[in-house]
Amino acid sequence: MATPTTLPVVMSRPEVRVILSQLSGVPWLVGQLRIKDLDFDRHQILVLDHLEVGRRLHTLDLTQGRGAVTFPDAINRKYPGATKSWPWQFVFPAGRICRDARWGPPSRFHLHDTVIQREISRAARVAGLGTRVSCHTCRHSFATHVLQRGALGVQSPADRL
Questions:
Q1: What value, to the nearest 5°, has the Cα angle with vertex 43 and ends 146 and 107?
Q2: Are the C-beta atoms of 89 and 74 separated by less than 8 Å?
Q3: Which residues are 44's β-sheet partners?
Q4: What is the 8-class DSSP label of residue 155?
C-alpha cells in the first residue's frame, strides 16, 4: 500500500460545531444524527418530526399522480402496491422528482449524497474555515475526537505522555 502524500485534515471540536451550526433541514439532521437516536432493542431511529415532513411530501406526491418508488419486478410481484405505500418510501427523499425513463414513471428517489457534500462545503466557506472540508473530513474528525476521548480503550498519543 502506498504511503499517503498528504495528512488528513482533522477539524477541532469548535470547527465541527461551527460547521454544524451552518446546516439546516436534512443536511443538519444527517450531520446531527447520533447513536443515541438509534433504539437497537426496538430497531428504530428516532427522527419522528423528519418522518412526518416526509409523509406530507409523499402524500402530496400521491395526489399529483406520483409517489411510487422503483422496485425490481420480483419485489413488485411479492408486494403489490408497496411502491406507493408509506413504509417503502425513502427516509431522506430527493428534493425533486426523477424523470429518467430507465427507472419507470416519474418518482422521487433518495437524496443524492452530493447534496450533503455540497452543504458541508458551503457551511465551511460560510464559517470562514481556510481548509477544504468534506463529509470524509467530518467522519475523520469525529473518529479522531472519539479516540482522543479514550473510547474503545484506545489512548491518544497525548494521553500516553
A1: 100
A2: no
A3: 39
A4: P
pTM of the entire predicted model: 0.70
Tens digits of residue pLDDT in 101-128: 877 788 888 899 999 999 999 999 999 9
Set of cell numbers at residue 15: 470547527
State the amino acid at position 161 in one-letter form: L
DSSP state of 118: H
Helix ranges (H only) for the chain are 13-21, 25-32, 48-63, 73-78, 113-127, 135-148, 157-160
Which residue type, as a one-letter code, is found at position 129? Answer: L
Q: What is the DSSP string of 76-91?
A: HHHSTTGGGSGGGS-S
Domain residue ranges in the chain: 13-149
